[in-house]
Please model this.
Amino acid sequence: MDADQLASLPETDRLFDTIVRLFGIATPELRPALTQASTLIAEALGADKVDVFLHEVASDSLVAMGTSETPMGRKQHELGLHILAISHGSPPTQVFRSGQPYLTGRADQDPTQPRGIVEELGVRSQLDVALAVGVQRRGVLAVCSATPDQFTERDLRFLTAVAGWIGLLTQRSELSEELAHQARWQGRRDAAEELAKLTRRQ
Model:
């Protein structure tokens, strides 16, 4: 099913199809999994860019841990616009702080929009919803288009529902990475202990 067919589905069918595809993502690593998820959502909404932003405590920033494989998504990373300081008060950071969604079809008229997003990427429509992982608000799911008035309240409902499943995917990937890290650590520890035993025998 191509992007146009998916976007034209009734809301419940589009949501179901997207969720099925999200949980078909087999990649255990966080970044590749969220990149695939972002690309699927971009197709479902006919968007030019989708980001899964997660809050990085050390820098107090939202960092795009997954960005759609689209021209606008790639350009965003080339320009360094995939990191948003909370203190700058951009729409995604406001959504992260408040939990309230953001929808605009005229981003160029919003003074809180970073100039690089509007001028360099050409974003005109934007839809952001808070992203929870478990019971904790951890980031923002952000959707952008260069077309004015691209997204509707129907798309907002869709994205809000999908955000819950992205949270589950994030939790699953983080758990997989943590288990892999623990296995590597245990493997190194076992090897060190075995080496120590061999050394003592000599």
